[in-house]
Amino acid sequence: MKFPLKTGVFSILGVLLWATAFAASGPILLNVDVPSGQWKAARLKNLPKDAMVAVQVESNGEISVALIHSKAFQNSPDNLRPLFAGRVERRLSFSVAVAEKGDHYILFDNRRGTEARAVTVTLQAALSEKDQTQAAGAILSEFEKQLHRLFVFDAFSMGVKQCGSPRAFAEESGIFLCTEYVYHLYDALKDQERAKDFLSFSIFHQVAQRLLEDWNHPSAGRAETTDEFAVALMLMLNQKSRVLGAADFAVKNPSALNTVSKLFQQDDRHPLSAKRGRNVLKWAKDSTFPRKWQAFLVPHMQTALLKSLKKKPTSWTDLSLVEKELAARDKKAI
User: Fold this and answer.
1) CATH 2.60.120.680 boundaries in the chain
2) Which of 50, 211, 307, 308 could link 128 by a cystine bridge, Cβ 3.0 to 4.6 Å?
């Protein structure tokens, strides 16, 4: 991250899009007309190894379908070694794991048919569970590095792992998001954007808790204080839409997350509840709210950030605190 920032506010390089590492791509919809006595093929570009591909085929009559790697496809549906082959009467669903990365083809064979077939194919692909975890973990690790460029704190590990129990975060040093929490949130909400909102707030809540403890805040153990600090950080780091999205949904749809909340009773701070959401919503709508935390934050800001804020203050910058802190550091350096 470079200082000064053009907008005068922080950006974390879109890091909270990390949640897409868990989300399936698609769905992709294909409509294919296959005349009688003919076959057609549709190319699926650059599928990664071990990706899971789910396919649903609907047809107005019988037709053969196959999924095959491009290396095994010689521009003919004969003598193939497909990953999957089957015959559709009206509807057929199947899923396969990609054995080798690269382009693949889905073939529709109507050479034995006496009538044309109208085929609709819905495809959805997702990374393997191992790749999903590694991708999300790498982005969270980068998030910690970006935070370190803004604030002074003892480095801690961030990542993603299978926890083996219904928890949002693993009980160990550092901050490790449990894959079980991610999957249950997506399953409960059926909405990627809302799931990202809740996951974003959960991550910032954990980061806020860690920083409050490291910086010896007197109320570090209180959930309300941690929520406050998380909101302040999210507003400062350009994540207002995420915090508003989570809080607004929690308040308006208190029953939507009941299943997840009951399942994750060991971790009662996640996901954000309707009761806490009302406070979070109030704070997030207050444009002056981050200023409340500047007296606590400024002493822990990196010098480069302080200089940037002095040169180009933000709406929440307390310039007197920034100048005082810089003067103290200059004096200490002499």
Assistant:
1) 27-126
2) 50
27-126: CATH topology is Jelly Rolls (2.60.120)
* Lookup: tokens for 273: 């509840």
Tell me how far apart the alpha carbons of residues 207 and 153 are, in angstroms, rounded to a whole number: 11
Of 67, 104, 61, the closest CA to residue 86 belongs to 67
Contacts 24+ apart (CB under 8 A), 158-164: 160/133, 160/136, 161/133, 161/137, 162/133
Helix and strand element counts for the chain (H, E):
10, 10
The partner residues of 169 in beta bridges, in order of sequence, read: 177
pLDDT, tens digit (0-9, with 9 covering 90-100), for 89-141 = 999 988 787 888 899 999 999 999 999 999 999 987 766 667 677 777 788 88
pLDDT per residue as tens digits for the range 291-310: 999 999 999 999 999 999 99
| Cα(166)–Cα(178) distance, integer angstroms | 8
Q: Whole-structure pTM over 0.85, yes or no?
A: no
